[in-house]
Amino acid sequence: MFGFSSGDLMTLDDERHLFVSVVSGWLRRAGGMPEP
Questions:
Q1: b/e string for 6-19 if b means 16 or more Cβ within 10 A?
Q2: The organism sits in which domain of life (predicted)?
Q3: Could you give the CA distance from residue 36 to residue 31 in angstroms, rounded to a whole number?
């Protein structure tokens, strides 16, 4: 997802968790969704 091969630096679950954290944080800063 972020240019890392699977199992190289992060696992797929770690990448997904990081992606969700970044997106949800950006949405909160933009006044989008409330924190779950």
A1: eeeeeeeeeeeeee
A2: Bacteria
A3: 14
Q: How many angstroms separate the Cα of 31 from the Cα of each of 17, 19, 20, 23, 25?
A: 21, 18, 16, 12, 10
| Sign of the torsion angle spanned by Cα atoms 7, 13, 19, 21 | negative
Coil, strand, or helix at residue 34? coil
The answer to whether residue 11 scores a pLDDT higher than 60 is yes
Answering whether pTM is above 0.85, one says: no
Separation of CA 19 from chain center: 1
